[in-house]
Amino acid sequence: MKRSAIVALALTGALLLAGCTDSSTTRTTISPTASDGIDRGYLDQSLPIATRVDILLGQMTQAEKFGQMTQVEENSLKTGDVASLGLGSVLHGGGSVGGKGDVDAWKSTVVENQHEAVDDTRLGIPILYGVDAVHGFGGMYGATVFPQQIGLGAANDASLMTRIGKATAQEMSAAGIRWDFAPVLAVPSDIRWGRTYEAYSQNPTIVANLGAAYIRGLQSASLSDPSAVLATAKHFIGDGSTVYGSSTQVIDTPYLLDQGNTPADATLLSDTLLPPYKAALEAGAQSVMATYSSWGGQKVHGDAALLTDTLRGKLGFTGFVVSDWAGCDQINPSNYDDAIVQCINAGVDMVMTPYDGAKFLSSLAKAVAGGTISQQRIDQAVSRILTVKFEMDVFANPYPDPAAASLVGSADNRSIARTAVQESQVLLKNDGALPIPATTHTIAVVGNAADDMGMQAGGWTQSWQGSAGTVIPGTTILDGLKKRAGANVTVTAGLPTSGKVDVCVAAVGETPYAEGKGDSTDLALPGLSVLDGLKDRCGSIVLVVVSGRPVIITDALPGVDAVVAAWLPGTAGEGIADTLFGDVPFTGKLPDNWPKDITQVPTAPAGQDYLFPMGYGLSD
Ligand code: GLC
């Protein structure tokens, strides 16, 4: 994106540039002068943030205020839009097709957007650029991709979670990206939900502990640290508690659970759903994303009782609320203006339009002019957004540190990812096949997830839905086994044409998915059929399940000697070899109940045991 000259014409008065402008990454140094009539006291870091907000807000035009409440998708921007719309934020969201490439490619885009905001607008308010770095920044080629949250729930290691948050922030901020739409704080009630893997656990205490730990890592000790990234507690509230079949959303396929309806159950709210948010806010989360779903039939994006009375009144939240992707629109699909009025008045401060920046701005102006949204509400929303921007010190540090790019995919971060994979493995069955014996001479690795980075990573990687294939660099399960087995063991991809193999590792996975497109009717795992031909060819069979949730494996159990739940491990596939060979003990415990069959979903009938209950996991 070439920098725009458009807004230069709109600038009143001459800005005396005291310092040189490094068009790449350092801030333009502006020497305040009376000539342009702007009081730049808001740039004075010695002043209290509330004072800086007052100075800035007090001289903002309505258009500039409305712009701060507007977030637009990167892929819909034309050169000059960031400046001409006065955008408060740009996102590269799930709906975008593919990532932008490596850290340098991302940095180039982010910095260009930021230069427009900082240098081509009257007040130079930096944008916050946001992405879904939900398992590391999967959209950035070469980034460290950690296990998805469900695997980290199995690990249940808060200090590790903090290290993952810090490593994620380190790699994001290297590209100039300082806002992460994570962590998900849902407590899934029905594991058929396509976002089950984005949640830590069905145990709200684990969700609260790990969510808070992640936020502390992501946001550093202070949000003003240039490598700190703003966390987003999402999706407030009840996103994972919807009733099967209650969704009316259709995106290529009808959604079943995602974006559906959660019964307005006060006990569920107080005892299960709110504690993770309470912990997240205590950990310092300064943005919250509203959920698409409904609460008692009311779209949460339009629910003031939840977004204001509960989130602010009960939990004391002081940051800003961002909508989900066109989430406001869903309040009233037939009347956008009315939807926007309801959304802002309910408590959404910034709207992820995402392609309708100009339309949103027009609707907002109409509502304020007509009195359906008060000026006080606008000033309140903008003050919240500016407060966070000052807390993050983006005015002083709008651009990334060029030296930080070398930290992306660093050995330290990959080591953290390997530890996370090791700790997330859950041993469900072991009839003596594990650890793989030192006397082993031949190993065959079979199955659709044996040698596939895309299957290991899952959704939110190089694309929204994720995909099988070599989508990002990393170590596959096969790679890891080959490397660990060493030169004296023959490790083959697939069965050899004849003869018996000492150990067969069958890595079977779900085809990647995200959100409601992953809503399942049966939790089936079609790739299990690979087991059919193994019995007479293998000395022992180890089933490794690469999935975003518990799936139906009951009938496969008798025919295998060991079963490991590997979840969606990401780039450090070597962590699976570490546990299979016994170099690292199995410590993972099930974050969710694992059903025998679909009749035990969402919950097992009274008196029935699950195949494996939440908290289950063998150590040898
Ligand atoms: C989505 C998701 C949300 C994500 C946003 C931006 O549809 O619900 O979790 O942060 O879009 O990609």
TrEMBL record:
<dbReference type="InterPro" id="IPR017853">
    <property type="entry name" value="GH"/>
</dbReference>
<protein>
    <recommendedName>
        <fullName>beta-glucosidase</fullName>
        <ecNumber>3.2.1.21</ecNumber>
    </recommendedName>
</protein>
<dbReference type="GO" id="GO:0008422">
    <property type="term" value="F:beta-glucosidase activity"/>
</dbReference>
<dbReference type="InterPro" id="IPR036962">
    <property type="entry name" value="Glyco_hydro_3_N_sf"/>
</dbReference>
<dbReference type="Pfam" id="PF00933">
    <property type="entry name" value="Glyco_hydro_3"/>
</dbReference>
<feature type="domain" description="Glycoside hydrolase family 3 C-terminal">
    <location>
        <begin position="426"/>
        <end position="619"/>
    </location>
</feature>
<feature type="signal peptide">
    <location>
        <begin position="1"/>
        <end position="18"/>
    </location>
</feature>
<keyword id="KW-0378">Hydrolase</keyword>
<dbReference type="GO" id="GO:0009251">
    <property type="term" value="P:glucan catabolic process"/>
</dbReference>
<keyword id="KW-0732">Signal</keyword>
<dbReference type="Pfam" id="PF01915">
    <property type="entry name" value="Glyco_hydro_3_C"/>
</dbReference>
<dbReference type="InterPro" id="IPR002772">
    <property type="entry name" value="Glyco_hydro_3_C"/>
</dbReference>
<comment type="similarity">
    <text>Belongs to the glycosyl hydrolase 3 family.</text>
</comment>
<dbReference type="InterPro" id="IPR051915">
    <property type="entry name" value="Cellulose_Degrad_GH3"/>
</dbReference>
<feature type="domain" description="Glycoside hydrolase family 3 N-terminal">
    <location>
        <begin position="63"/>
        <end position="388"/>
    </location>
</feature>
<keyword id="KW-0326">Glycosidase</keyword>
<dbReference type="InterPro" id="IPR001764">
    <property type="entry name" value="Glyco_hydro_3_N"/>
</dbReference>
<dbReference type="InterPro" id="IPR036881">
    <property type="entry name" value="Glyco_hydro_3_C_sf"/>
</dbReference>
